[in-house]
Amino acid sequence: MSEELQALQKSSDTSDLAQKTKSASSSLTRILKYTLVRLVTLFITVVVGVYLTILIANMGGYVDEIRRGEIRESVSLRIMNDPVLKNLPPEVRFERMNEMIRLEEKRYGLDQPFALRSVRYLRNALTLDLGRSQTMSSDSGSRQVRLIILERLPATLVLFATADLILFFSAIFIALFLSRRYGSFWDKLVVTLAPSSSAPGWFYGIFLILIFAALLRVLPFGGMVGVPPPDNTLEYILSMLKHMILPVTAILLSSIASQAFSWRTFFLIYSSEDYVEMAKAKGLTSRDIERRYVLRPTLPNIITNFALLLISLWAGAPIFETVFNWPGLGRVLFQAIGLYDTPVIVASTVLFAYLLAVTVFLLDFLYALVDPRVKIGGQGSSR
Amino acid sequence: MKAIKKTLRDFLQYPSAIASMVIIFLLLVVSTYTLIVYPYSEAVRLWRGGENVWYNLPRNVPPSWTNWFRSEKLPETIILNSADESASKSIDSIQTGDRIEMAFTYEFDTDIYPQEISLFMKATFKEKSPFASITWETPDGREIRIADFAVATSQTYRFSQDTRLQRRLGGVAPMIGLFAEPGTDPPKPLKGEYTMRVSVVTFEPDTDLDIEFVQYGQVYGLAGTDHLRRDLMVALLWGIPVALSFGLVAALGTTILTMIIAAIGTWYGGWVDEAIQRVTEVNLVLPTLPILIMIGTFYSRSIVLMLGVIILLSIFGGAIKSYRSIFMQVRESPYIEAARAYGASDLRIIMNYLVPRIIPLLIPALVSGIPGFVFLEAGLAVLGLGDPVLPTWGKIIDDAQRNGALYRGYYYWVLEPAVLLMLTGLAFAMLGFALDRVFNPRLRGM
User: Where are chain B's structural domains?
Assistant: First the structure.
């Protein structure tokens, strides 16, 4: 159960940062400070991650090509729009154009060594200024890469956020239920089913599409809304919900057994603690015991565990969205592969790095809220 | 020795472990068989050889065994060749040249008409091409003239594309007209022995003609065929060794390297440890799949490169933290101090004293890690980034998706590779699960 151990260990390195902030008195400032430190660390992490992405992309000179293509396009546009230049004889005009391109390239620093250029690319990538796409365009008709990918972001967020929320609460519910009925039929069933989570969501998706879309014809094969999209908002939402049933179920199927299993194990470990026995002896209701003495101390572990799951779900988005034809970020990436649209591929990779970083940050923030060790100054680094 | 026996006994208490061992063993047997029967070059030829490798297979048909579950049987694919024993061929000398008689006889006993019948003819002659007349004999004794034509050196005749034949059959499609029982409405196929006779007249000495008769059925082989008429069996079989070796190498490489890095980090401590921790954090934010996609699109889709990159991106994974915590405890053990006291080198301590301690934790992690990599490889292929040469399961699913297999009802096309993937993934996952319990008795009660 490496995942559980991982979760247990996670506390060590998040809290040693907080250790430095011993002087702060109130827990709020402590949390704020902790969050700020984490934010800065994560920002540095993202910068490094994005820089690595650019390095990989530019090993074949691809980012350079994006820039060159853009310069050529803008220069030729300028020449076409300039009445004086436009009427020059073709050879002279061509020479002028090349000269202008050379100057522009120099202005952008394309004649400089890569080490210098990469820093500039990094800045551009961090602001998602990765130029214009080669063939793809956004739904509103723009060729700006930033627009293309940002336009798709909500679709991805809606799908995964819904699935994750359902997953989180149903897993907790099931885990609590199972820990209450340790050794029962349902408990054994979930333990037996836990290995089924080795298959990713897209894989279950194929089966679900086969059964519910192809065989029974009750749910759509894929996509986000019906065709044509309904005009009024209510119908639009209903249609979207209908399209979300299969993808959300696929994510649930692929993760719920292992999540419920590992959380149930946490609950079982914690409910054999002495203070739980004590609470039972005091005659507290089982509901109170669960809430105050079992759920509460396991919460940090559960959140870490869940965030790791989220990260793996994000990472699988390109395949998952392709299988379900979901018009999200992952699908853009897939389309960009098919069209060899370099700027879009690089930009989506960068955006995925951002998404992962945001997830990690949210995890850290929640962690700070629920883990008392952060609030009181963090002595928990011995683990 | 005793310890191993005990471990084995513990292990055999889990039925899921035994089931998974059986599945893995079968997969290994089948992949050995595959590698012997279809060596690499043969598999690549069968999978990418081009139209002349799979021309005589039907397009997009389910496997033959699906007939067991059907009330109306689908016709098999029948291939008869006058060059071998499957069809009769006799040569008589007459005044002007030779007279070659061929008969293609077979039993037709299904309730559905075949997809198509084609004749692939190969003739050898110098100037004057031989002349062939083809007739069709039904079980009830009717004789239908199919066509008469001069045969070129290499010629294909497709029954359904002959409009004159269709006219002669009264405007019915040839596949229905030739097999239908007269007087039935809707036309029902007549079961029994059909014979196609070809009589050829040659006009030159040393003229020869051979005909391959292909009745494209609605089912084929053990696995069916895809949109290019390829036998899916090749890819299904080859997918096993590819998936197994990919998963195994990736899991092995990742776990072992991760463990060594964790050991080095904990042993040296200080900035080495700190650096490893930070790299792990950066790695968490690196989007693995998009980076793989980028590499696949820009550089190469070769499976070996992908494997390397996957290992590289996974060695600084979350597992480092759990290994590190165990090494932290081990580092303080007295026997390590003893080793240090007798002057063991750092490398010796790491390799001989630290690393072995973690093996009980490592083996389950390794086995449980395999399905993830198997599915990752399939996933990349589903995105169209599969290895350009090797036939794999993921590539079948990709082909099926691109050709709307589910929408058009070719379920076998998706189900076959998916079931194999599931079987492989589940087997390793269950094995890992059982191993985890055997090696970590703390979990056993849970």
Answer: 2-45+231-443, 64-216
